[in-house]
């Protein structure tokens, strides 16, 4: 029996560990790049019921033809169902990267619901996780940002967060697959591209190649700590009245827990998580710990919160 190339084995093992135990339909999100192509091939090999969907963002010449090529390959390789989702990025909030991401995830979730998929597999690798941590550090994002991309988030599963990008390329080569090279990945107009092309290579040169795995491992440890603190905060919020928060209760909490309670409460009031920032939470915290008679805190979604008779309340 021919020996399986180590890179192919690594990707297959990672995917096998991520598949749902009940054998439900698994959907692979595949752009045609090396990471998602290696992921798709592994899922098709180890899974029982595997489909594939590719998203055409319409941002580059020939994108529709490229999406059709990915779908044709998937159908010939035995994936079922196979879908092409076309999205419109223009008009969505955030910069180009954020808008494309919002459109892509919305399309993936909608398609998964239509076909009854149990999970959607995404091809993010250990290198992607390291880049995410560096970007979060640059933004001063705090623990929530430094935890990186979760391995599981609702429908979405990232099996390759412990697999190196180099291994997905090696796996494609070993399997005779030709990946598409997205020009956006090397375009210096995008922050992630600059991290990938300059910042992370500079760190590797200065600190050694282990820095990539160490950054990814740090993200996993911070994510575990966040989960524990979020559990404590959720329990504290559950014991509070939904319409208001008692200042005396908030002052009795440690800062890390209190700020999480405030963040969760703001979300419950209707503030969209994508727009709710550290600045908003710090302003709420100031109503509790640095009260000087200041006025309302304005949260995303047109929500206002004031301190009134020993409580934080939403302005009607």
Automatic annotation (TrEMBL):
GO biological process, one term: tRNA modification
Residue intervals of the tRNA(Ile)-lysidine synthase substrate-binding domain: 245-312
Keyword Membrane: no
Residues reported in the UniProt entry to bind ATP: 31-36
Taxonomy, superkingdom: Bacteria
Function field: Ligates lysine onto the cytidine present at position 34 of the AUA codon-specific tRNA(Ile) that contains the anticodon CAU, in an ATP-dependent manner. Cytidine is converted to lysidine, thus changing the amino acid specificity of the tRNA from methionine to isoleucine.
Free-text note on domains in this protein's UniProt record: The N-terminal region contains the highly conserved SGGXDS motif, predicted to be a P-loop motif involved in ATP binding.
Identification of the protein by name: tRNA(Ile)-lysidine synthase
